[in-house]
Every structure is written in C-alpha cells, then in structure tokens.
Amino acid sequence: MNTIITKNMGNVMKLLRNDVKPAVGCTEPVAIALAAAAAKSVISGEIDEIRVKISPNIYKNGMNVGIPGIEKTGLDVAAALGAVIGTHEKGLEILGEVSAEERNKAVELLNCNKAKVSLLDTDENVYLEATIKSGKDVSKAVIVKKHDNLISITLNDKDMFLKKEDTQANAATDLMPDEEFYNTPIRELIEAVEELEFEDISFMLDGLEMNMRAAETGLSGKLGIGVGAAIKKAIDDGLLTEDFPNTAMMLTAAASDARMSGMAIPVMSSNGSGNHGLTAILPIAAYREYHKASDEKIARALAISHVITGYIKNYVGRLTPLCGCSIAASTGATCGIVWLMGGTTEQLENSIKNMIANQAGVICDGAKPGCALKLGTAAASAVQSAIYALYNHYASDNNGIVTGSAEESIKNLGILSKKGMSNVDATIIEIMESHRC
C-alpha cells in the first residue's frame, strides 16, 4: 500500500473519530449548556449570575429550538440548565438525563433573571464564553472552533484548565485531518475508505441504529411540525408511494421532528451537528430497507457520507448561512448511496454536482421545528441525485456554480457561502429578533 493511501486513511479515521459522535439535543444550545457547566464546575457556592457570550451562528441556531430535559426553548434556558448540572464530562450528551431537581433549579434561576445569553461580535463560527459569579468568585469557560472543544476554565483569573498547546488560532486541529486532506481528490478519499479495516469503522452502524430510533420516536406521534408522521399518513392513505426516496424523506424528517421538539434522545452527529448526522445517515438506512447489503458495505457507505460531509463543510464553514444539511450532509448521503449501488467514482462525483445544482440556495435560518421540512427535502434529493448520476444524467460544466469537477464546484459553494452571503446571518438574526415574544 502506497504512502498516500496510508496517509489518507489516517486522516479519514481522524475525521470519523472526532466528528462522528453522539449528541442529545440541538448542538448549539447544548454547547451553551456545556460552557455554563464548565464554568460552574470550579465554583462551589450559590449562583448569583450566569452570562454567556456567543458567536452569531451559535445565537441564530439556538434561538427557537426545544431544549431537552425542560419544556422550554431559548438560549437562556440552556445556560441555566448547564450551570445547574455543573459538570461537563458528558460533552454533547450533557442534556441527556436532566433530573426534576435540576430542572426546578434552572427554572428558579430563570425566574430570578440570573441567566443571560448575549450576542458577541466575532468572526468565529463557533465561540462561547460563559461567566458565572458566586459571591466574590468569578469563573469563566471558553469553547471555540467546535461545539465541544473546551479550551479553558478559569477561577478568579487563575487557570483551572487549559487545553495543551491550544489557542484560538489552532484549537481543535490536533486530532483532525491536516489541511492537505481537504485538497485531496475525492476519488482518493473513496479509495481510502475502501481500504479501511471493517473493525475500525464498524461503529458507523451504531450511529445508524441510534438515528433510526430517533426516527421511530418521530413517527410515534406529532412532534414539532410532525413532517415525518404526515409523510407516513400520506403513504398509509395511498397519496404517496412507499419507496426508497419517500422512506428516506420520512425517516430523516421524523428524526428531526423528535430532535427539534426537544426530545432527550441521542443521535449520532456529523461535523458537530445532530441534524447533519440524521441527513448523512438516514437516507442510507432507507436504502437498507429496500436493498440487501452487508453490514460492512453499509458501514463503508456511512463512512463515505461522513467524510464527504466534512470535506464540504471545510469549504463552506462549520456554521454557515447555507443549510449544511441541504448542501453537505445530503451530498455525503448521495455519495454513499451511489457507492452502495455499485456506481463508479465518476458517477459518485457527478452526484455531487447534481446536489450542488439542486440544493445550493437553501439558507440556514436557525434550528427549529421547521428544520424537519428541509431535512426531508434534502434526504429525498440525495436519493434522486444518486439515481440520476447512476444513469449518467448530471449537471455538467458551466451549470451555474457547477463549473467543472466536483472538487471545483464544492470550492465554488464555499465562495458563495463565505463571500457571497457574508451579510445573510446578520439579516436573519435581525428578522428573528424583531419577532421575538
């Protein structure tokens, strides 16, 4: 095996191990809770004040989503709940088991106006700074770059925890793929996944089962908007056919219904987002409902999906004005499906072009129950784009921002997100703020 493939395999495993992990609840309010919990972990006295400053993308994505463990929405709620929990060892699963006592204490803090989350003027996609006051003591915790990347905790300006050799400039990079990885041709990434030992990626199947349980929860009744349940009723009534694309749409939407309504259910995330994980995984789960495939093949398809998701997110941004489920995770899923169905690498690359041509304009206006609508559409598009590509029907050169290779088109998507939509998040936040109760 040559050194290039070996290096790519190592980078792929870094991405899978660090960006594919369980999460309970929308990861933006979860990150707020995690920061507040980390700050509280070094203070023993009663809480007098909780203040959390967050980047615009975290702010936007957490405003209107349900918080697990408490029948409320809102950023302040997440901060209060995290501070009451007071320990951060569970990471993104911190809100998985909230006791009645913790819930009541959080409500008391909120009623006394002791928890406040505010918008911070920063260019960082992911930045959270939680400060807690208790008597004369003041603690602070900082999360940067990734939702669970805690880099420091201080008490009265004294370091209590400092992530080794970490700064805002290099946070979260030590265990992630090197920058050269994201210039690797996609065909070489697929080759790397194909060479991995099955035992190294078998945990991909855990994510599939986890997210299927979330989908089953969403199908059990009307949660959130109830998009998944509505699709199921339409299938039962004969208005929609029970097939691969509609099942992918139903499962993905249903899982999002459950998650966005605030259900305390774990899902396997991708690139720091639970909804990304649902979109990257559940269309492939739907494939399994209609076509035979070994566990090993399913695991490799899921690995391909997560890798392509991370590859695209590197260009468009971890949090972005564009809906990452629509443009990244769904594109990962379409690649996994093409690979499962025996498509060539060229057909896989063409499926990426189809997804960009189809989904590039979908904005992210924060996490909320309506995300289920977008996730359902993205999942169905993933299946359709794969099928078109398998029949060699695809968006060719000079088709809008699809201008050549799949890699070049992904880079164009990044330019659109970072340069062309630089003011979109601020505008979305302004609209959302103007309609807050």
UniProtKB/TrEMBL annotation:
<feature type="domain" description="Serine dehydratase-like alpha subunit">
    <location>
        <begin position="89"/>
        <end position="429"/>
    </location>
</feature>
<dbReference type="InterPro" id="IPR005130">
    <property type="entry name" value="Ser_deHydtase-like_asu"/>
</dbReference>
<dbReference type="InterPro" id="IPR021144">
    <property type="entry name" value="UPF0597"/>
</dbReference>
<dbReference type="Pfam" id="PF03313">
    <property type="entry name" value="SDH_alpha"/>
</dbReference>
<dbReference type="GO" id="GO:0080146">
    <property type="term" value="F:L-cysteine desulfhydrase activity"/>
</dbReference>
<dbReference type="GO" id="GO:0019450">
    <property type="term" value="P:L-cysteine catabolic process to pyruvate"/>
</dbReference>
<protein>
    <recommendedName>
        <fullName>UPF0597 protein SAMN02745751_01854</fullName>
    </recommendedName>
</protein>
<comment type="similarity">
    <text>Belongs to the UPF0597 family.</text>
</comment>
